[in-house]
Amino acid sequence: MSQERATQVDRASGGEEPQEPLAVVAAAIVQHGRLLVVSKQAAPEVFYLPGGKPDPGEEPLQALCRELDEELGVEPREPRLLARVESVAALEKVPMHLTLFEARIDRLPRPAAELADMQWISGHERDVRLAPAVTDHLLPMLRQRGSMAL
Ligand SMILES: Nc1nc2c([nH]c(=O)n2[C@H]2C[C@H](O)[C@@H](COP(=O)(O)OP(=O)(O)OP(=O)(O)O)O2)c(=O)[nH]1
């Protein structure tokens, strides 16, 4: 944890406790060079990876399986930890600790009612607004690995 983060104080509540980053887990699912992204009804214009916040006591992979089932009715196949990323949560705009898994799926994702949209992107679309963690961290990583075109 950086010194800056360690000394961050929850001023809104007047408390003295350092504020923990928001924990989020998400899956990078790439098929034929395209990345699966979703947007939620809460913010239909912002796209990011399927996933969400773990429930209390839930392990990251458990949370990922639950979120993928709830959002898309799919199960991650051969999930592999890809990276842990510090970024800013696209909706809450607070520091976020994102645990990223890479996974395959073997059935068609079916967006649940909480989702506004779902797209398979190349990463070069001009009309798709992506969360900072996707643009700044995930896409460069996937391009470097050759999973997506430069
Ligand atoms: N799932 C996911 N969330 C991301 C990514 N990038 C990013 O900034 N976020 C942010 C968006 C939100 O601020 C937060 C996750 O919120 P969420 O709405 O998906 O979480 P959730 O499904 O658990 O929803 P809820 O309990 O708040 O209803 O993390 C990403 O790639 N995937």
Automatic annotation (TrEMBL):
Q: What UniProt keywords apply to this chain's record, in alphabetical order?
A: DNA damage, DNA repair, DNA replication, Hydrolase, Magnesium, Metal-binding, Mutator protein
* Span of domain Nudix hydrolase: 20-143
Give, as one word, the top-level EC class. Answer: hydrolase
- Name any cofactors this protein relies on: Mg(2+)
Name the InterPro entries on file.
Answer: MutT-like (IPR047127), NUDIX_hydrolase-like_dom_sf (IPR015797), NUDIX_hydrolase_CS (IPR020084), NUDIX_hydrolase_dom (IPR000086)
Q: Name the reaction it catalyses.
A: 8-oxo-dGTP + H2O = 8-oxo-dGMP + diphosphate + H(+)
- Stretches for region Disordered: 1-20
The UniProt family comment states: Belongs to the Nudix hydrolase family.
Protein name as it appears in the record? 8-oxo-dGTP diphosphatase
Which species is the source of this protein? Streptomyces lancefieldiae
